[in-house]
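re: ur question from earlier - yeah i can do the single chain one, its not a big deal. heres the input i used so u can compare w yours
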Amino acid sequence: MRILSVDPSLRGTGFAILEEVGTRIRCLEYSVVKNHPKLSQEGCLIAIHEALASVIDRHQPEALAIEKVIFVQSFATAIILGSARGVAVLAAAQKGLSIHEYPPKRVKQAVVGKGAASKDQVAFMIRALLGLTETPPSDAADALAIGLTHLRTIASPVPSKLLLRRK
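and the output i got, formated as tokens:
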């Protein structure tokens, strides 16, 4: 199975392509769609959509694993984050990918073992778990963690709804 995983953000959307063959998971690509601070919101959304559509065309994944909407204190931040997330989901839906969401605490728990792990802890564990030669940038590491969570969840004999409900 090959998946695209995304950690959405207007200025730095992390993405990764992971492939599972048997019991082996390997990373085919990871990066961050970096948008300049002066680029308009609309321009950022177009750049995210185009970059992810290109990645999908290049790697032909079967599914998208994406971070679930989280509580934020600012409505403006929530709307902007939701917009970035929306264009990522749109890019995947246009190509026929199935969509799977994971809450941030569940991702951290799956990768580090605790739901309150720091970004540095996630990046360190991702490097170790996937055997990467360098530590990925935090946005890309988060995307890799989301993808790894998805692959572990679908491989588990426990129904995913139960896995996601555990605290």
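The radius of gyration is 15 Å. not sure if urs matches, ping me
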